[in-house]
Amino acid sequence: MLRYPAIFLFAGLFSIQVYAQEQAQPTAPFPFQVTLTKPDSSELDSRKVLSAGKPTVLAFWLTTCVPCMSEFAAYTKNYADWKQQKDFNLLAISLDFPDRFHKIAPMANEKKWPFPVYWDRARAFKQLLPGGLNGLPQVFLFDKTGKLVWQHKGYSAGMEGELFARIQAL
């Protein structure tokens, strides 16, 4: 009788492992070709700030997203320590509508975010990344070759630890 529950447990664990290995990939190659807007309104090509060679985290957010603020507060608290332990990039990319753009720089300055902050005015990443950025916050982790290796949607306390563990494993 105990054999069958063990088989179902093994099959369930195997399917989770297979799913984790089959991470959907972006529709265009990393480092993408997206126009990003800096908080000072100047623009740059994403290829200038996204480079292969080290793990890269893209964290998508909105100025009105409370879970986004909690997640970024956790990143800010740990960022200096993380950077001492592992060389990686972390970029915060806002998907706000144009009428909220003027809130991005004051928010980043007030919260003292130590990582670069950009705005995807055209929301181009929605067409590039798996899931279409439906629901925020969303975080995507790319390995040093630019392969998408992990992503998560939403935030609850402690998720930043899982992100950093995955960064360290790369």
Main features:
globular, alpha/beta, 5-stranded mixed sheet, 170 residues, two-stranded antiparallel sheet, Glutaredoxin
Architecture blueprint of SSEs:
Layout: H1 3-21, E1 35-37, E2 43-45, E3 56-61, H2 66-85, E4 89-94, H3 101-111, E5 117-119, H4 125-128, E6 138-142, E7 148-153, H5 159-169
Parallel strand pairs: 3-4, 4-5
Antiparallel strand pairs: 1-2, 3-6, 6-7
Helix pairs in contact: 2-5
Question: In brief, what are we looking at here?
Answer:
This protein is of the alpha/beta class and 170 residues long. It has five helices and seven strands.
Give a verbal description of the structure:
α2 runs parallel beside α5. The termini are far apart. The protein has a 5-stranded mixed β-sheet with strand order 5-4-3-6-7, covered by helices on one side. The protein has one domain (27-169): 3-Layer(aba) Sandwich (Glutaredoxin). With 170 residues, it is an alpha/beta fold. It has 5 helices and 7 strands; from the N terminus they run αβββαβαβαββα. It is globular and about 40 Å long.
Number of helices: 5
Number of domains: 1
Number of strands: 7
Which strand order do you get reading across the main beta sheet? 5-4-3-6-7
Annotated CATH homologous superfamily:
Glutaredoxin
Percentage of residues assigned to helices: 25-40%
CATH-scheme architecture = 3-Layer(aba) Sandwich
Mean pLDDT: 88
Pattern of helices and strands: HEEEHEHEHEEH
Query: For this structure, what is the CATH class?
Result: Alpha Beta
Beta-strand level of the residues, as a percent range?
15-25%
- Tertiary shape: globular
Biggest sheet overview: 5 strands, mixed
Radius of gyration: 17 Å
Class of secondary structure makeup: alpha/beta
Note the gap between the termini.
41 Å
Low-confidence stretches: 4-20
The CATH topology turns out to be Glutaredoxin
